Amino acid sequence: MAEDCGLKPTRFIHYCRQLANKTPMDILAEARLTKAKELLSDADSGRSITEIAFDCGFASSQYFSQKFRSEFGLSPREFKSALKAQ
Fold first, then answer.
1. d(CA 38, CA 78)
2. Contact 62/50 with Cβ under 8 angstroms?
3. Is residue 3 very low, low, confident or very high in pLDDT (cuts 50, 70, 90)?
4. How many structural domains does the chain have?
5. SS3 of 57, please?
6. Among 32, 29, 24, 26, which residue's Cα sits nearest to residue 8?
7. What CATH number is associated with residue 16?
8. Where are the beta strands (DSSP E) in 34-79?
9. C-alpha distances in Å from residue 1, one per residue of 13, 48, 60, 68, 79
10. pLDDT digit string, tens, across residues 27-55
11. What's residue 47's pLDDT?
């Protein structure tokens, strides 16, 4: 990410912390989780939670579930079930 911005990694981290008070990896994880939440909300997709996790850049569905729960307070399965109940 730093290279794409034309910055050295240390400077890039500094700017991320200054602008968003987060590390670049925190920003990336947040973006991935937000995208996963959108994909889980799409009831017509028919994709599994594991497929969504991999599509959003997570290496395992277990790690994805752990991060999703810590970010949104529900597991991906619970989130998907809550949407169906509405």
1. 15
2. no
3. very high
4. 1
5. coil
6. 24
7. 1.10.10.60
8. none
9. 10, 29, 22, 23, 30
10. 999 999 999 999 998 867 788 999 999 99
11. 86
